Amino acid sequence: MGISFTVLSSGSTGNATVVRNEDTTLMIDAGLSAKRLDELLKERELTGEDLDGILITHEHSDHIKGLGAMARKYNLPVYANEKTWAALGTKSIGQIAEEKRIIMQTGEVREFGSLRVESFGISHDAAEPVAYNFIDGKEKLSVATDLGYMSDKVREAIKDADVMVLESNHDVEMLRMGRYPWNIKRRILSDIGHLSNEAAGAALSELLNGTTKRTYLAHLSLDHNMMELAKMSVRSAMEDRGCFYKDTEFRLCETYYDRPTPWDKVSDS
Hints:
InterPro entries: Metallo-B-lactamas, RibonucZ/Hydroxyglut_hydro, WalJ/YycJ-like. This is MBL fold metallo-hydrolase. The protein is an alpha/beta fold. The chain has a single domain, classed as Metallo-beta-lactamase, Chain A (4-Layer Sandwich), CATH 3.60.15. 28% of the residues lie in helices and 24% in strands. The protein has a 7-stranded mixed beta sheet. A 7-stranded mixed beta sheet has the order 7-8-9-10-11-12-13. Helix 8 packs across helix 9. The longest helix has 14 residues. The two termini are 14 Å apart.
């Protein structure tokens, strides 16, 4: 079977992704209401009962809004590092049974059946944010958003992925001209904020080595980006750095804030 995945929702209003292989199904983040997550799962012929656990990247509300309700409703284990658990507390997620609160430290590699999950640190204004690699045999999927910037450690972690879900949060000029107060704009533009279209393209120009066949542009700002603009800007940034490709060799793919992506198989890369 190999690895398959669907990005249930991605953007500033909420984030959740499901990754599965022949014996394991995991959700990464639960940033929408439990009711909405159930609806999105149903659209991909799943229910919360199909999940084997939830992996958390960090404690911001667009990544954990429905976490407590989903964990309690379906009796799911939740995996996060120690600092993220401390930042979550109970105010934002309610009570989760102690035996379901599992510490998976940054940099830890854990086996979920035949699915190997690697956690790695990222730069964002949270307690200890992480991203994840999913590996089954020779297949590798990387899910990395809320990056701030593309550090050498992140680049090393995801460089040989077959498929990536990668942040392309904002167009810099749209953000600068937008309605947000300057302190919020400054945070988003900083090294602990979000990756811009240009920065995503620059990163991909260094990462593409023939291994990665598809990249899903993710976590787009509703106020300061558009998918067609993101795709155009990312591709332009890659070409400006001498990275040219044919659509048969590599594709930029879309994610959505209001509907899930189709199931995709990493082995189709």
